[in-house]
Amino acid sequence: PINDFYSGTARLPEGWLNIEPQPIFGTGFNYESQTRAGYLSRQAAYYEHAAPEFMYYPGSWADYDLLRVDTAHRVTYPVKFWDVVSVVPRAGYRGTYYSETEAKNDVARHTADLGVETSLRGTSDWNNGYRHVVEPYVDYSYQPTHYDSENGRVEGFDHYDRSIEWFDQFGMDGTWLPYDWHGVRPGVRNLLQTRDEKKGVMRTILDWDTYSAVQFDSEGPLDEEGLRMVGTKAIYSPTKALDMKAQGEWDTEADTFAYVDLSTFYKVNEKFRLGGGYLARDHRLYDYDVSPVEEWNRVKENLIYSGFTHDINDTWSWSTYVRYDLRNNELDEVGGYVQYRLDCLVFQLRSAYINNYQRDDDTESQDDFRVALMVWLRAEKRTPDDD
User: Fold this and answer.
1) pLDDT, mean over the chain
2) Mean pLDDT throughout 270-298?
3) Above 90 in pLDDT, residue 82?
């Protein structure tokens, strides 16, 4: 949770169904969908000792219970020429229904998705056994969004209806946005590979992606055209047990690093993996509307984090993590999960403790405890020759 100013949020209950890309009767088209439905509840906090303008935020509409149903469908048609050029056009629709809005009416939101990703792929095999793969690409996306604003502002709940992550705010990589977006993301991906002597296959040592986002004319909240973001992401794996990641993205409008993530994770053995890293964020939160408190429209974090996962056996596993806030020199969050696997189902119990913090208006938030129980179908394992 980032900048969560509410005293209580809950999903009681919530369920979802995701269909991974599936071929449509041998036509060359692929279909995928994500559908989610849940009863969402939120209670805003009162602060008796706060200044009058902060006594109750965001307003009387912040307390609500509503049904939210969201369904997204997409069709793609991947085409490859000479094993070098790849073109993947896509078209989709997303609809979201809310049983209640700020004005206590029900409302529906509709979003279209039209786009195409084109890439070239070149390969060079070196005499020392290494292989270099270069893949320049361009991803174009147009996502017009419409909802009946006369029925009231859509209630935001956690990350569902606002784009929390900075790299999710540009309509690329199949991300559905709750607002208009029109633009392209050009980039170049490089792979450095070597042959695994035991398995006889190529293993990626370095995966390096450099990209940018360019916005065209749009009715969305991103109010400037042109180059909006440049970024790079590199994953270095000198051995099969060690992964080192570096990611950084630059906000060209605010002239600052919007996102930085540096991490290292080591697999001690087949059952135990641990690591940690550094995370910094300084970027806008885009939504249909903005907070009257300007500081609350921006994410600012400076954290170090660490954690591990341990598979006790084929049935039981557990994990824990901790995050420390370097800005305030205090604990930020600690949590983890216990997981139980059956042949067809997985049960996971998650919990987290979030430390209290001081808001911009000098009010103090309370400690927060969160618990979640998740159940999902386990994917069927297939051998390569199993039709």
Assistant:
1) 82
2) 79
3) no
- Tokens in use for 362? 């000098």
- Termini Cα distance of the chain: 42
- Judged by phi (left if over 0) then psi (alpha if -120 to 50, else beta), residue 7 lies in alpha
CA triple 255-257-262, angle to 5 deg: 165
Comparing C-alpha atoms, which of 149, 66, 147 is closest to residue 108?
147
The Cα 183–Cα 160 span in angstroms is 22
Which of 67-81, 89-103, 196-210, 367-381 has maximum average pLDDT? Answer: 67-81
- In sequence order, the β-bridge partners of residue 89 are 116
Task: Tokens for 381, please give them.
Answer: 């394992």
Residues near 342 by Cβ (< 8 Å), separated by ≥ 6?
Answer: 315, 378
Amino acid at 280: A
Contacts of 34 (CB under 8 A, 6+ apart): 16, 17, 18, 19, 70, 71, 72
- 61 in Cβ contact with 54 (< 8 Å): no
Higher pLDDT, 283 or 351: 351
Are 227 and 135 within 8 A, CB to CB? no
DSSP state, 102? T
106 CB contacts (<8 Å, ≥6 apart)?
Answer: 97, 98, 99, 100, 151
> For 381, what's the count of Cα atoms within 13 Å in the CB-facing half-sphere?
2
Helix then strand count (H, E) for the chain reads 0, 20
CA–CA gap between residue 93 and residue 90 (Å, rounded): 10
Distance CA 123, CA 222 (A): 38
- pLDDT: is 171 or 202 the higher one? 202
pLDDT at 162 over 50: yes
Which residue, among 167, 138, 140, has the nearest Cα to 250 in the 3D structure? Answer: 167
**Lowest-confidence segment of 128-132, 169-173, 233-237, 305-309 by average pLDDT:** 169-173
3-state secondary structure of 295: helix
Q: How confident is the model at residue 358 (pLDDT cuts 50, 70, 90)?
A: low
pTM of the model: 0.76
Give yes or no for a contact between 319 and 351, defined as CB atoms under 8 angstroms apart: no
- Cα dist. 200→241, 243, 383 in Å? 18, 21, 19
pLDDT at position 386 is 40
Length of the chain: 387
